[in-house]
Amino acid sequence: MEIETIRAFLEVADGTTVTVAAERAHRTQPALSRALSRLEREVGSELFQRSGRGLTLTPAGRELLDSARRIVEAYDRGVRAVQDMAAPQGGFVPLAFLHTLGTWLVPELIRSFRAERPEVRFDLRQHGDAGLVDDLLGGAVDLAITGGLPEHPQIESRRLLIEPLRLVVPPDHRFAGRRSVRLADLAADPFIVLKSGFSLRAVTEHLCVEAGFVPQIGFEGEEVETLRGLVSAGLGVALLPDPHGVGAPAAPHLRVSDVQASREIGIAWIRDRRLPSASDRFRQHVIGNARKVARG
């Protein structure tokens, strides 16, 4: 059973055609088809069935899927560990992070780390909270910089900092001229929030309840900057982190005075999984420097 054949099995299982999988593996399509047939003979069952113009997994293929992913992940971790031994100053860090942290925290942490270890390479992925957990559990990344601390028995995490949240109101809002506001005074306003599954959505709902009301949801989105734009257009209010790396925002960002409006930023990894050297060094760097970056 060749590792590249298992990779091809995973690609086809994810919806890639055999032709494209063959190109990525630098094989001909007939050669890869024969390799997948050998894999089926080895496991003793058909793994794919034709569905229209494509292939879908059989029950046996679905049963093999998780084990195949673990095989590839373990192999890749082993290769990286050997590479780290051969080039101790180099290495490779697969990192996922909350999309709102991509304009300030993550770039600066990587910049300062690579100033000391310029040979280290990064593979970066941006997600909402659920995607970060999936990437960790699936082995796609070693580390995830998160909003909040994931509650999962396989995941270990550590708080990095507390990020303030502001009440963002339209430019012509009745409170636009203020510097601070009570969240309770916005109980009648429509709130613009991230979709369910994002930690910032849960934080918003919790803070509103703490202030004495259940928020009226006007719009839902998947990007914080989209929410900021909707507020600027006068479509509602939102609890959002300060913008970073941009000019003055179009919508006023007000301090919240009646509840502690903030969210946790953390770093997470798989419990009891030994991190490769480069990822472990970057984890230590993040823990030691995140607050310094946040202070500017």
From TrEMBL:
Source species, domain of life: Bacteria
Annotated InterPro entries: LysR_HTH_N, LysR_subst-bd, WH-like_DNA-bd_sf, WH_DNA-bd_sf
Keywords: DNA-binding, Transcription, Transcription regulation
Heme keyword on record: no
A cellular component term, taken from the record's GO annotations: protein-DNA complex
Gene Ontology MF: a single term: DNA-binding transcription factor activity
Domain HTH lysR-type: 1-58
Pfam families for the chain: HTH_1 (PF00126), LysR_substrate (PF03466)
Keyword flag Thylakoid: no
Family label: Belongs to the LysR transcriptional regulatory family.
Record-given protein name: LysR family transcriptional regulator
Species of the source: Nocardioides cavernaquae
